Each structure stands twice: as C-alpha cells, then as structure tokens.
C-alpha cells in the first residue's frame, strides 16, 4: 500500500544540526527616543550556543578540502561551547572527537559533551582554577601531531567566521536597520563573521567587541577573570579570527558588571543568559542612552545561563569570589525602569538620574 507523505512531514528534520539557526530576537529595552536593544538568542540552537554554527562550518570545510577523511578523528581545545558543537557534528557525521578541556570549564558543558560521546582530556595545571587556555592548546596540538587527528584550530580557521553568514542573514530578514552589533569576543568568529556579512550586504553597522577585564585582546593588561568562553589571557597569541579591521571598538567589561547584567536579565525576562552575554548586555545598556535616537542595537547572546547555575547564578559562588554586588543589581534595575518609563524624556537625562 502506498502511504501519502504530507508536505509538512517531509519538512520535519531527522538530525539535530538541521535545527541550527533561525534563532529568535527579544527586545530587552526601548527608550523614549525610539532606540531599541535586541537580544539575538543563540542559546536556542542545538547545544545551546551559537558556536555550533561554526563547528559545523569547520567540519564541512575540512571534509571539502580533504583535511578530514571519513571516520576520522577531531581534536580541539575548548571551554565547552565549541566542543559541544563539534561533538554534535562529529556524532552525526561519524567522527571520533576528543575535547581538551580544563578544570575551569562549566561542569555541565563537559558532562553534555560526554553525553554526546566526546572523549575528554582534562588539563589541570594545578596552579589555580583559572582557565588554562595556553596549556589546553599545547595539549591538543600534541595529540594532533602524535595521532594525525584533525585539529580545527578555531582561533585561526576562516571557516569559524564563515559559519556566521546565516546569522547575519537572519538579522537582515527581520530588521530594517542594524546600527550597532555588540558581542563578546573570544576567537572573534561570531562578531567578525556576522559583521562582515552584514556589511557585505550593505548594512552600515558599528561593531563593539566586549572582552573581560583582564583579557588582552584589545590591549588591556592581563589579569584573572571568571567569564568563560570570551577573552584571551596573558601569554595567549590572539588568532586571525579576531579581525581588528572589523571591530570598531573594543571594550573590557568586568566580571561584576557582566554577571550582574546576566542575573538582572534573568529576573526581568525569565531567560537566563550566560556571563559573556551579560557583559555585552551591560555595555549595550549603558550605550543605549547616548547613541542616536531611533538606533537599533543587537547583542549576540552566545549561550544560556542554565550552563552556569553552579557559578554566576549561585550567590555563594559569587560571594566567595567577591563578585556579588547587590547595589549594582539595583542600579541596573533602575536603569531598565528608567528606559521603560522614558517616553518623551531625553534618555541621557534618565541615564544620569538612574546613576548607572
Ligand atoms: C560563552 C561564550 N561567549 C562568547 C564566546 C566568544 O565567541 P567567539 O569565539 O565567536 O568570539 C564564546 C566562545 O566560545 C563562548 O563560549
């Protein structure tokens, strides 16, 4: 007997990576001047992060060039989100994947990678629980050299930033204008890749890259920071995916401001965002009052806060590290209230009144 397959049935995907992209936008704030702050919620991708876009692109490109052969082995150092993306694509396409992580990685990201069949090599420098980005890279290189595994090298692989072409298209599909694009910078792929495609398609967008205070990407002195995924520590060679020509301004945001903003967003929207997204939101909210009236500012939210329930959403964890600042939480709530109440009043005055 012939079965009839309806058009809707044939459109239902049969592998998770087909669900990547078309992530939603959420308006977080609007001022009386008609300026909007929108969040591009990349946590709605499979693996809960934007990084699966680039993981897929790096693998497809490696297959195309022959750098990765059927049944091959992939090894990459990761703070988690790239590893989750690679784990997903590896399992779908039949590769072995080894993630080199450190003890600083969010526990749930590491567990999720293991759940998807990734092999884990945990680097423990024993010095502190600071990220060991340099050591992770050294160990991954050593494994790749010894075993012949494919090492995507997300910091220097152009397929990383190329993986965000669709993201730019998704923004242009729904927005008439994008004046500012704000994003946390680690490898630089998401901000630079998105901005490059926006500009190629004619958008006059100003980009603001955000790194943790203590990261050295935009020239600040190195020191310890607790944001994970973004930034580069002292001693790390910044890769070519940080395209300085593509970033109009680089700003360092401290952990207290980053985590406060993430928590305030959670309290006001019910959506938990990660700490690096919190940093970008913190900067964007301060800028919203001073940019030209009617501007649209988009913040790239790399991942969700559910990955950080044991850290930035845990009061004791924050207190132990002197990162819990109740007054900063109140100031940010006041600023958001002021924006919400600001119809007809110059936003910059409100910004001053809120004392933020
Ligand atoms: C949580 C988080 N935020 C920000 C970034 C930075 O993104 P990119 O590497 O595209 O600069 C990453 C990268 O891994 C991340 O995991």
Strand order of the largest sheet: 1-2-9-6-7-8
Radius of gyration: 20 Å
The ligands bound in this entry are: pyridoxal-5'-phosphate
Structural class: alpha/beta
Return the CATH architecture of the largest domain.
3-Layer(aba) Sandwich
Task: Report the sheet with the most strands, covering strand number, pairing sense and barrel closure.
Answer: 6 strands, mixed
The poorly predicted ranges are: none
End-to-end CA span: 69 Å
Strands, count: 9
Order of helices and strands: HEEHEHEHEHHHEHEEHHEHHH
Mean pLDDT, rounded to whole units?
Answer: 93
- By CATH, the topology of the largest domain is Rossmann fold
Query: With helices defined by DSSP (H or I, 4 residues minimum), what is the helix count?
Result: 13
Quick one: CATH class of the largest domain?
A: Alpha Beta
Beta-strand fraction estimate? 5-15%
Give the topology, please:
Blueprint: H1 7-10, E1 25-30, E2 36-41, H2 51-65, E3 73-77, H3 81-93, E4 96-102, H4 107-115, E5 119-123, H5 133-147, H6 158-162, H7 165-174, E6 180-184, H8 189-200, E7 206-212, E8 249-253, H9 255-269, H10 275-288, E9 296-301, H11 315-320, H12 326-340, H13 347-354
Parallel strand pairs: 2-9, 3-4, 4-5, 6-7, 6-9, 7-8
Antiparallel strand pairs: 1-2
Helix pairs in contact: 2-3, 3-4, 7-8, 9-10, 9-12, 12-13
The structure holds pyridoxal-5'-phosphate.
